[in-house]
Design brief:
This protein is mainly alpha-helical. It folds into two domains: about 1-85, no CATH class; about 90-290, no CATH class. The chain has helices spanning about 5-20, 20-60, 75-85, 95-110, 130-140, 140-150, 155-185, 190-195, 205, 210-225, 235-240, 250-275, 280-290.
Length: about 290
Amino acid sequence: MFSLESITNSIQNWLYNTFQPWFALTLECVIVIALVTGLFAVLGLVLVLMERKVAAHIQIRLGPNRVGPGGMFQTVADTLKLLMKEGLTPDLADKFLFNLAPFIVMIVAMLLLAPIAFAKGFQVWDINIGVLYVSAISSLSVIGILMAGWASNNKYSLLGAMRSGAQIVSYELSAGLSVLTIVILTGSLQLSDIIASQENGWWLFKGHIPVIISFVIFLIAVTAETNRAPFDLAEAESELTAGFHTEYSGMQFALFFFGRIYQHIYCVCHRRHFIFRRMDAIAYWALGRI
């Protein structure tokens, strides 16, 4: 596995040799927060544009092509628009819960980043129950979704929240059960141990029939969690306008949008890249060939 351990160790040693331990720890937290925020900002701009481009190609249309070369700055323009739009709260809504819900979804998405190993020795928290941590934290987003639907005092929002919550919970069970196969074969819940167990071969190829069945179940389940066709029942525009975030605008809507995207990405990264190894690289290569 590609290693950045020397860089992280040198930074940590310099901080603790230069400053007091409490101040060095504070600086480490600031550095991590800055890196996470920067990663979220870049991913938000790039991945949304990628999705819109691929969707346009599949649907035989042009997609974003006006702002910048080939439309590459379209998401930057959209971000500026969302920053300038006024955030409205319905008169009869529960204002506290209505404004709290987007932050819950976004915080959950950021917490999911902690156990991800971007390289050897380059992760926020190598917790020994990493798989359980990801499954537990990712399920908390349902609270924010149900809170948004109920607090909006809108029947379309409430129906969309109930649909979305039911779909997330049901397919989380399938995805979680598929992951248990790898946990049993590895004998550990720690993501770094699961990665190390695949140095001599991917579990998808050396785990035989049980892992192949688990991978197929997992692939279907995470597709359902993204709320994309054919699992877009929770946000059916023809029935529910926009689902649970119908009443949200401006940056409140943006927090929901980005929070859900990041959560899907990190769930797939945790459970596919680290558990079924590099099958995601094959998927991204195939996507690039479309």
